[in-house]
């Protein structure tokens, strides 16, 4: 079962009380001066008086982030979540089928939340899971579940595979012939099949599924390297050399050196 998207009823911002306006001016002044702790306290006062005031929510999240305290990274990420909630509630309706990047200010805010959560010193998985509840589009939800899978893979392979499959399922739900899969998630499933489950044939199956799909060059290189390794394990050295050579024909990325290494192994075995 795929998770539901965040689709709250539309609401209209209420008029700010005079006291909230006063707090807001003070908060903005502190923020401009780089006094982030004081700014965050004033933004919180605004939120208590005017809980649907989006600038106050964004100011609070920004203050927590800029304060630079590692222990507050998760709090800042969740504060951006609250900002997203207000932005979705008050803004124009967001098409749940929208492409990545087309979700307006709400998507931009939630992506910032996700990026922050990934840098937290602890509780990254729990924070990412909380963030996933606020995604207003399938594409954004898929990207968040991909990050959940990456984090879960450090401790729980089964949970990671579930997250990656949810990410791909969310993209499949869009029924977009131009982007039918969440390629990055399927590549991670291939990696788990190869490295954790020791089922190289599954990695090759995923390659066959993705081979004609559009994906970023770095993801494509990862896929080709994994496929090459799988073919080596299956004893098909010709196929391995072919895919690893293709990997080296793509723009250089972090996996390019691994492609060189795996190709050297395949060539040595073929001789």
The total strand number stands at: 0
What integer value in Å does the Rg equal?
A: 23 Å
**Which secondary-structure class do the elements indicate?**
mainly alpha
Spans with pLDDT under 50 lasting ≥5 residues? Answer: none
SSE order, as H and E?
Answer: HHHHHHHHHHHHH
Share in helix: 55-70%
Total of helices: 13
Q: What gap, in angstroms, lies between the N and C termini?
A: 49 Å
Coarse shape: elongated
Q: Which properties best describe this structure?
A:
271 residues, mainly alpha, 68% helix, elongated
How would you describe this structure to a colleague?
This protein is mainly α and 271 residues long. Helices cover 68% and strands 0% of the residues. The protein has 13 helices and no strands. The protein has helices at residues 18-32, 36-49, 54-66, 73-90, 104-118, 124-132, 138-152, 157-173, 183-195, 200-210, 217-233, 237-249, 256-270. Helix 8 packs antiparallel against helix 9 (183-195). The radius of gyration is 23 Å and the shape is elongated. The N and C termini lie far apart (49 Å). The model has no long low-confidence stretch (mean pLDDT 96).
Q: How does the SSE layout of this entry go?
A:
Elements: H1 18-32, H2 36-49, H3 54-66, H4 73-90, H5 104-118, H6 124-132, H7 138-152, H8 157-173, H9 183-195, H10 200-210, H11 217-233, H12 237-249, H13 256-270
Helix pairs in contact: 1-2, 2-3, 3-4, 4-5, 4-6, 5-6, 5-7, 6-7, 7-8, 8-9, 9-10, 9-11, 10-11, 11-12, 11-13, 12-13
